[in-house]
Amino acid sequence: MQKREVAHVQVSENRAVTEIEAAEPQASPNEVSIENFVEKWRRSWEEGDVQTYIGCYHSDFTSRGMDIQAWKSHKQRLFSLSAKRNVQLSDMQIQANGSSAVVTFTQSYQVAKHLDVGLKTLKLRRHQDRWTITRENWYPIPAQG
After folding, report:
1. CB atoms within 10 A of CB 2
2. 74, 62 in Cβ contact below 8 A?
3. Strands, DSSP E only, in 13-84?
4. pLDDT averaged over the chain?
5. Could you count the other beta carbons within 10 Å of the beta carbon of residue 140?
6. pTM of the model as a whole
């Protein structure tokens, strides 16, 4: 979501009008649908809803040498290790091009005995009228301080 700066301008003694001073462009409908998709993916991961989470991935998905079936098994095992997860995303950037998109963001993932922060890239494809993840990469961001 873009941030907008707003200025209040006095037009008479008793009335103020709000004007948008340095407005950034609004997100396109395509970007909004991508943001909603990524939030659905994040929320299902955080809540441990493995069915919805895996449903976000395309049948041709690959990552770290795993196909979709290996990924599903890997994630089911990880989901079973901890009932509580905290998944936060920030600094999201979307590059959409028709039926494909690349989404990058900073991801903070925390469970009881583990915390990591990294840069995640999701490659998306619009498939059967919905977004799916075809590829996923994550690189750790070294701790600051």
Report:
1. 9
2. no
3. 15-20, 57-63, 66-67
4. 85
5. 9
6. 0.80
Nearest CA among 15, 43, 39 for reference residue 94: 39
pLDDT bracket for residue 145 (50, 70, 90): low
Identify the CA nearest to 116 among candidates 61, 78, 76: 78
Residues with Cβ within 8 Å of 127's Cβ and at least 6 positions away in sequence, in order, are 58
Q: What's the half-sphere exposure (Cβ side, CA atoms, 13 Å) at 70?
A: 8
Section 34-45 average pLDDT: 97
Residue 71: name the closest of 141, 132, 139 by CA.
Answer: 132
Query: Given 3.40.1050.10, 3.10.450.50, 3.30.1490.20, 2.60.40.10, which CATH number is that of 28-140?
Result: 3.10.450.50
Tell me what pLDDT residue 25 has.
Answer: 66
